Amino acid sequence: MLILNADEMWQAVSLPKVMDTVEEAYRIFAKGEFFMPDRPVVTHGDDTLLYMPCFTEKCFGTKVLTLFPANPAKGFPYIDGLMLLNDAESGKTVSIMDGGCLTAMRTGAVGGVGMRCFSPASAHTVGVIGAGKQGFYQALYATCARDIRHIYLYDSFPGKDFGPYVASLQAALGGKQPEIHVCGSPEELLANSEIVVTASPATSPVMPNDTALLKGKCFVAIGSYKPTMRELPNAIWELVDHVYTELPFAMEESGDLSQPLEDGIITEDRVRYIGDYLLAHPVPVPPPPGTTTYFKSVGMGLLDLCVADFIYHEALRTGMGQKVRF
Ligand SMILES: NC(=O)c1ccc[n+]([C@@H]2O[C@H](COP(=O)([O-])OP(=O)(O)OC[C@H]3O[C@@H](n4cnc5c(N)ncnc54)[C@H](O)[C@@H]3O)[C@@H](O)[C@H]2O)c1
């Protein structure tokens, strides 16, 4: 069995190839070549345990995540956990890897794929609302999806010290060095960003309900995964014909979709699936500048499985990780 920690996982892969793997996972979803039961969610007080099993024709696996909202204030990550990857023939566990790292790696790639599909090819600016762990990797993958020259960050955490965050981001960006700007408000971020990513656990919209501020941007909403969570305001529905998401369950799971559906602001026919888009467009066709687009991700075990299988094979090929005999 191969055990992989976060450093080894990042060293084994290249970000554009993780995005390609995520695109392929969406196509597998659209073709129905998988088995993924609804993920059991266990809540205990404010804390959540997520079990995300999934099978493809090639392999199967389970990501087990803990989401502890009080953790960031204690200096621990909000999301932690493990990914178990199994051989499809024997059921044997072939790899155990860091589930928090896998989540950030594939969720960043999900955002990057959303940008490759739905942002103009000429986009040079990205804004990230919610400068936490996912926001970090959204910014990083944005620079692989587009020629990003300016990154704008906004976070509502009172008195947040952006210094270490910006320094880590600059280090991770390596040779590419877009300018990084910390914004004092979501309005300032919106005024400067062609692509806007929301990556917060907010329960009410993280930006004003103002079509003039939202118009002409590519929105990638990552954070809301419960009906009580919400990042985008209703004004978005005046600007887009439809939203792209991953799977029908997103309409129940995420308040960004369930609330406007319940309130009669949208109907289900305005919800489309990125897998169908990618099957129809083997090479994504970016929209012209000035188009408002909206991609809402809730994540799914199929993404973790495909990315974990990719990491495992890349790690074997490059000699990463520790082999352990059970
Ligand atoms: N779509 C997916 O597949 C996927 C995957 C992983 C995590 N998530 C979700 O993404 C969200 C962020 O996760 P994380 O691991 O980055 O958490 P995190 O705690 O590391 O970061 C969240 C950041 O958002 C900030 N924030 C909270 N409310 C805000 C607001 N109204 N405006 C601006 N900033 C705000 C917090 O201060 C914090 O810095 C969570 O809700 C998580 O469940 C989604």
From TrEMBL:
List, alphabetically, the Gene3D superfamilies matched: NAD(P)-binding Rossmann-like Domain, ornithine cyclodeaminase, domain 1
Q: Which Pfam families does the record cross-reference, listed alphabetically?
A: OCD_Mu_crystall
Q: Which GO terms describe its cellular component?
A: cytoplasm
Report the SUPFAM superfamilies cross-referenced here: NAD(P)-binding Rossmann-fold domains (SSF51735)
**What InterPro entries would the database entry show?**
NAD(P)-bd_dom_sf, ODC_Mu_crystall, ODC_N
Spell out the protein name for this chain: Ornithine cyclodeaminase family protein
